[in-house]
Prior knowledge:
disordered C terminus; single chain; 12 helices; 38% helix; elongated; Nucleotidyltransferase, domain 5; binds zinc ion; alpha/beta
Amino acid sequence: MAYPKTLLEAIAFFNDEQVCIDAVAAMKWPDGEPRCAHCHARNPYYLATQKRWKCRKCKKQFSVKVGTIFEDSPISLQKWLPAMWLLCNCKNGISSWEIHRALGVTQKTAWFMLQRIRLALQRDNKHKLGGSGGGPVEIDETYVGGNRKNMHASRRLKLQRGMKDEAGKAIVMGMLDRDLRQVRAKVIPNAKREVLQDEIIGEIEKGSTVYTDGYSSYDDLARQQYIHETVNHVEEYVRGEVHTQGIENFWSLLKRGLKGTYVAVEPFHLDRYVTEQIFRYNNRATKDNPLNDSDRFLIALSQVAGKRLTYAELTGKVPQRPEVS
Ligand SMILES: [Zn+2]
């Protein structure tokens, strides 16, 4: 199937329900063999008029949406897929108001759709960053404030960490593997040594070279078997290769999206916006890997299965269930 290359082509292409179903089915069952959503039996009938499958064994019916982020949604795939295209490819993200106007769904529905799509953008990382033969890893944290004044002040605040009350600001910790050109980042409860160190040990191979600023919470990394170099932001900005400008560029992108597109994000949802920005950053076009909009969309679509999120889970009313495979 020849995939669309531009947003206009994508909207025209996904204007047909069967095309959408085929696109999702191809990702859900990469071997081309649909399986029953209830009992996993092979070779179900396809009921073309109802656009559903019927299991030969348990006789139950199921749509392509079952077991994906689209499950239980009354919104058609003709709207879901363009929304996904937009979120994957708009540099600063896209707001629920824009989706509401572009696709003719309510703003509340659009918000819910975007949150579910962000879930698909999340990757389960199987490998650690760095490694003895790998590149250096830049590590940093940033403070995301509840208002514009705080955001602009975040850099100054960082230099005074621990010296003043940081209440009300969410802290995001990030790591950038320079060889892989991949970022990992998440919201952390505080910037104490144990928290930062646990994240580093969980994500970066021991023996890796790591670059941080001079914040005291990073003091112990040499003892944790990392080759640790620090940047002193007050006196020198760059010492050869030793800098954290890569991860700081990522913070700029994140904050531009948060400030421009999303305006106010509750800390509870901040992790999902971070995930979204990581997806676009890690799948951006580079010289070695010239990904385009269509590629980014297909990568996201390949991640829709095995993930779903209900409104109650999104709004924190019930705990999130473990993902099914
Ligand atoms: Zn069955």
